[in-house]
Amino acid sequence: MIARLSFILAIAFALSLLPEMGVGLALQARRHSNRAIHSSRSAHKRKRCEGVECWLEEFGFSKAIDVNSDHSHKHGNSHQGQDPYQYSQEDQYGGPDGPSNNDKEIYLQMHNKARAEHGAPPLEWDDRLAAAAQSWADGCVFEHSTGQLGDFGENLSAGGGNFGAEAAVQLWLDEIADHQSYGGDDGRLDHLTQVLWKGSKRVGCASRSGCTGIFGNQPTTLHVCEYDPPGNVIGQASQNVNL
Protein backbone atom coordinates (compact mmCIF):
# COMPACT_ATOMS: atom_id res chain seq x y z
CA MET A 1 0.00 0.00 0.00
CA ILE A 2 2.82 2.39 0.91
CA ALA A 3 4.69 1.50 -2.26
CA ARG A 4 1.59 2.14 -4.36
CA LEU A 5 0.99 5.49 -2.69
CA SER A 6 4.61 6.48 -3.33
CA PHE A 7 4.20 5.56 -7.00
CA ILE A 8 1.07 7.70 -7.32
CA LEU A 9 2.76 10.68 -5.67
CA ALA A 10 5.80 10.29 -7.93
CA ILE A 11 3.61 10.28 -11.05
CA ALA A 12 1.70 13.34 -9.87
CA PHE A 13 4.93 15.23 -9.17
CA ALA A 14 6.39 14.29 -12.56
CA LEU A 15 3.27 15.45 -14.37
CA SER A 16 3.32 18.76 -12.53
CA LEU A 17 6.76 19.41 -13.98
CA LEU A 18 5.86 18.66 -17.61
CA PRO A 19 4.60 22.14 -18.52
CA GLU A 20 7.75 23.70 -17.07
CA MET A 21 9.82 21.45 -19.32
CA GLY A 22 8.02 22.56 -22.49
CA VAL A 23 6.50 19.14 -23.04
CA GLY A 24 3.66 19.23 -25.55
CA LEU A 25 0.52 17.33 -26.31
CA ALA A 26 -0.99 16.90 -29.75
CA LEU A 27 -4.51 16.50 -31.02
CA GLN A 28 -5.57 15.60 -34.54
CA ALA A 29 -8.84 14.93 -36.33
CA ARG A 30 -9.40 12.02 -38.67
CA ARG A 31 -11.81 12.19 -41.56
CA HIS A 32 -13.53 9.57 -43.66
CA SER A 33 -15.72 9.39 -46.71
CA ASN A 34 -19.19 7.84 -46.68
CA ARG A 35 -17.75 4.65 -48.15
CA ALA A 36 -15.71 4.02 -45.02
CA ILE A 37 -18.06 5.15 -42.27
CA HIS A 38 -18.70 1.76 -40.70
CA SER A 39 -15.14 0.43 -40.84
CA SER A 40 -13.61 3.68 -39.62
CA ARG A 41 -15.76 3.81 -36.52
CA SER A 42 -14.52 0.43 -35.43
CA ALA A 43 -10.95 0.86 -36.64
CA HIS A 44 -10.23 4.03 -34.67
CA LYS A 45 -11.85 3.43 -31.30
CA ARG A 46 -9.50 4.22 -28.45
CA LYS A 47 -8.12 1.16 -26.74
CA ARG A 48 -8.94 0.57 -23.12
CA CYS A 49 -6.28 2.02 -20.87
CA GLU A 50 -4.25 -0.28 -18.68
CA GLY A 51 -1.77 0.14 -15.86
CA VAL A 52 0.17 3.41 -15.84
CA GLU A 53 -1.89 4.71 -18.78
CA CYS A 54 -4.98 4.75 -16.54
CA TRP A 55 -3.08 6.58 -13.78
CA LEU A 56 -1.90 9.19 -16.30
CA GLU A 57 -5.43 9.81 -17.52
CA GLU A 58 -6.67 10.07 -13.94
CA PHE A 59 -4.19 12.86 -13.31
CA GLY A 60 -5.34 14.72 -16.43
CA PHE A 61 -2.25 14.14 -18.60
CA SER A 62 -3.88 12.34 -21.50
CA LYS A 63 -5.39 14.96 -23.81
CA ALA A 64 -5.30 13.22 -27.18
CA ILE A 65 -8.62 12.05 -28.59
CA ASP A 66 -9.93 10.77 -31.92
CA VAL A 67 -12.54 12.90 -33.69
CA ASN A 68 -14.29 11.42 -36.75
CA SER A 69 -16.63 13.40 -38.99
CA ASP A 70 -19.56 11.57 -40.57
CA HIS A 71 -19.76 13.45 -43.87
CA SER A 72 -18.00 13.30 -47.20
CA HIS A 73 -15.97 16.29 -48.34
CA LYS A 74 -18.15 18.98 -49.89
CA HIS A 75 -15.30 20.47 -51.91
CA GLY A 76 -15.11 17.75 -54.53
CA ASN A 77 -13.16 14.62 -55.32
CA SER A 78 -9.37 14.91 -55.33
CA HIS A 79 -9.11 11.99 -57.75
CA GLN A 80 -10.83 14.12 -60.41
CA GLY A 81 -8.26 16.87 -60.03
CA GLN A 82 -10.82 19.28 -58.62
CA ASP A 83 -9.69 21.97 -56.23
CA PRO A 84 -12.58 24.39 -55.67
CA TYR A 85 -10.73 26.96 -53.58
CA GLN A 86 -13.60 28.46 -51.68
CA TYR A 87 -14.62 29.19 -48.11
CA SER A 88 -18.15 28.92 -46.82
CA GLN A 89 -17.46 31.56 -44.17
CA GLU A 90 -15.48 34.14 -46.11
CA ASP A 91 -16.64 37.09 -44.05
CA GLN A 92 -15.89 35.47 -40.70
CA TYR A 93 -12.13 35.87 -40.88
CA GLY A 94 -10.70 39.28 -41.58
CA GLY A 95 -6.98 39.82 -41.45
CA PRO A 96 -5.21 37.40 -39.15
CA ASP A 97 -3.90 38.75 -35.88
CA GLY A 98 -1.39 36.61 -36.74
CA PRO A 99 1.70 34.61 -36.42
CA SER A 100 4.85 36.69 -36.64
CA ASN A 101 6.75 36.53 -39.92
CA ASN A 102 9.32 34.37 -38.16
CA ASP A 103 6.73 31.89 -36.91
CA LYS A 104 5.03 31.84 -40.30
CA GLU A 105 8.35 30.93 -41.90
CA ILE A 106 9.00 28.21 -39.31
CA TYR A 107 5.56 26.63 -39.74
CA LEU A 108 5.84 26.60 -43.52
CA GLN A 109 9.49 25.56 -43.81
CA MET A 110 9.13 22.67 -41.38
CA HIS A 111 6.06 21.39 -43.21
CA ASN A 112 7.67 21.67 -46.63
CA LYS A 113 11.01 20.20 -45.59
CA ALA A 114 9.22 17.11 -44.28
CA ARG A 115 7.00 16.92 -47.37
CA ALA A 116 10.02 17.11 -49.69
CA GLU A 117 11.63 14.25 -47.80
CA HIS A 118 8.52 12.13 -48.34
CA GLY A 119 7.72 12.97 -51.95
CA ALA A 120 4.91 15.47 -51.37
CA PRO A 121 4.65 18.86 -53.13
CA PRO A 122 5.15 22.00 -51.03
CA LEU A 123 2.30 23.72 -49.28
CA GLU A 124 1.47 27.38 -49.85
CA TRP A 125 0.81 29.71 -46.93
CA ASP A 126 -2.78 30.94 -46.75
CA ASP A 127 -3.60 34.00 -44.63
CA ARG A 128 -7.29 33.12 -44.47
CA LEU A 129 -6.48 29.69 -43.04
CA ALA A 130 -4.11 31.39 -40.60
CA ALA A 131 -6.93 33.72 -39.53
CA ALA A 132 -9.21 30.74 -38.98
CA ALA A 133 -6.48 29.04 -36.97
CA GLN A 134 -5.99 32.20 -34.91
CA SER A 135 -9.70 32.44 -34.14
CA TRP A 136 -9.63 28.90 -32.75
CA ALA A 137 -6.35 29.26 -30.88
CA ASP A 138 -7.66 32.40 -29.17
CA GLY A 139 -10.30 30.27 -27.46
CA CYS A 140 -7.56 28.34 -25.61
CA VAL A 141 -9.56 25.12 -25.85
CA PHE A 142 -7.61 21.94 -26.57
CA GLU A 143 -10.34 20.42 -28.71
CA HIS A 144 -10.98 20.27 -32.43
CA SER A 145 -13.14 22.81 -34.20
CA THR A 146 -15.07 19.89 -35.80
CA GLY A 147 -15.98 21.82 -38.94
CA GLN A 148 -16.88 25.13 -37.29
CA LEU A 149 -14.11 26.90 -39.22
CA GLY A 150 -14.83 25.20 -42.54
CA ASP A 151 -14.05 21.92 -44.25
CA PHE A 152 -10.37 21.93 -43.33
CA GLY A 153 -7.85 19.48 -41.96
CA GLU A 154 -6.58 20.45 -38.53
CA ASN A 155 -3.61 19.74 -36.26
CA LEU A 156 -3.35 20.99 -32.68
CA SER A 157 -0.50 20.92 -30.18
CA ALA A 158 -0.01 22.52 -26.80
CA GLY A 159 2.88 22.86 -24.40
CA GLY A 160 4.18 24.82 -21.48
CA GLY A 161 7.49 26.60 -21.12
CA ASN A 162 9.18 27.70 -24.33
CA PHE A 163 6.81 25.87 -26.68
CA GLY A 164 7.15 27.73 -29.96
CA ALA A 165 6.24 26.98 -33.57
CA GLU A 166 9.24 24.72 -34.10
CA ALA A 167 8.44 22.57 -31.06
CA ALA A 168 4.78 22.36 -32.07
CA VAL A 169 5.46 21.06 -35.58
CA GLN A 170 8.28 18.81 -34.39
CA LEU A 171 5.82 17.09 -32.06
CA TRP A 172 3.86 16.01 -35.12
CA LEU A 173 6.92 15.04 -37.15
CA ASP A 174 8.18 12.83 -34.33
CA GLU A 175 5.26 10.49 -34.96
CA ILE A 176 7.38 8.93 -37.72
CA ALA A 177 8.72 6.63 -35.00
CA ASP A 178 5.22 5.26 -34.43
CA HIS A 179 4.89 4.38 -38.11
CA GLN A 180 8.34 2.83 -38.27
CA SER A 181 7.58 0.60 -35.32
CA TYR A 182 4.59 -0.77 -37.26
CA GLY A 183 6.49 -1.23 -40.49
CA GLY A 184 6.08 2.04 -42.36
CA ASP A 185 2.94 2.45 -44.49
CA ASP A 186 0.59 0.91 -41.96
CA GLY A 187 -2.52 2.94 -42.70
CA ARG A 188 -2.33 4.96 -39.50
CA LEU A 189 -3.77 8.48 -39.71
CA ASP A 190 -2.28 11.04 -37.37
CA HIS A 191 -0.68 14.49 -37.27
CA LEU A 192 2.23 13.37 -39.42
CA THR A 193 0.05 12.00 -42.20
CA GLN A 194 -1.83 15.32 -42.37
CA VAL A 195 1.48 17.19 -42.58
CA LEU A 196 2.59 14.92 -45.45
CA TRP A 197 -0.77 14.55 -47.21
CA LYS A 198 -0.18 15.14 -50.93
CA GLY A 199 -3.72 16.33 -51.59
CA SER A 200 -3.43 19.22 -49.14
CA LYS A 201 -2.15 22.34 -50.92
CA ARG A 202 -2.45 25.21 -48.44
CA VAL A 203 -1.76 25.71 -44.75
CA GLY A 204 -2.26 28.46 -42.22
CA CYS A 205 -1.17 28.29 -38.58
CA ALA A 206 -1.40 30.42 -35.47
CA SER A 207 -0.89 30.22 -31.72
CA ARG A 208 -2.08 31.70 -28.46
CA SER A 209 0.12 31.84 -25.37
CA GLY A 210 -1.00 32.16 -21.76
CA CYS A 211 -3.80 29.62 -22.04
CA THR A 212 -4.88 27.84 -18.86
CA GLY A 213 -6.91 24.69 -18.38
CA ILE A 214 -4.82 22.46 -20.66
CA PHE A 215 -2.07 21.70 -18.14
CA GLY A 216 -4.16 22.69 -15.15
CA ASN A 217 -3.40 26.29 -14.20
CA GLN A 218 0.02 26.29 -15.87
CA PRO A 219 0.35 28.88 -18.67
CA THR A 220 0.29 27.00 -21.96
CA THR A 221 0.78 27.87 -25.63
CA LEU A 222 -1.75 26.37 -28.05
CA HIS A 223 -0.81 25.95 -31.72
CA VAL A 224 -3.36 25.35 -34.49
CA CYS A 225 -2.75 24.54 -38.17
CA GLU A 226 -5.53 24.38 -40.76
CA TYR A 227 -5.12 22.53 -44.08
CA ASP A 228 -6.99 22.84 -47.37
CA PRO A 229 -8.02 20.57 -48.94
CA PRO A 230 -8.22 18.43 -45.79
CA GLY A 231 -6.13 15.29 -45.48
CA ASN A 232 -6.43 12.09 -43.47
CA VAL A 233 -9.33 10.73 -45.48
CA ILE A 234 -9.70 7.10 -44.47
CA GLY A 235 -9.03 4.80 -47.40
CA GLN A 236 -6.86 7.31 -49.29
CA ALA A 237 -3.62 7.17 -47.31
CA SER A 238 -1.78 4.90 -49.75
CA GLN A 239 -1.99 7.43 -52.60
CA ASN A 240 -1.36 10.49 -50.43
CA VAL A 241 1.37 9.55 -47.95
CA ASN A 242 4.84 8.08 -48.53
CA LEU A 243 6.58 7.05 -45.31
TrEMBL record:
**Signal peptide feature range:** 1-24
Q: Where is the composition biased (Polar residues)?
A: 78-91
Q: Does the keyword Lyase apply?
A: no
The segment annotated Disordered runs over: 70-104
SMART domains with a match to the protein in the record: SCP
Coiled-coil region(s): none
Q: Name one Pfam family in it.
A: CAP
Please provide the record's keywords in A-Z order. Signal
PANTHER family assigned:
CYSTEINE-RICH SECRETORY PROTEIN-RELATED (PTHR10334)
| Residue ranges of domain SCP in the record | 102-235
Q: Does the keyword Signal apply?
A: yes
Q: What is this protein called?
A: Pathogenesis-related protein 1
Name the domain of life: Eukaryota
InterPro entries in the record: CAP_dom, CRISP-related
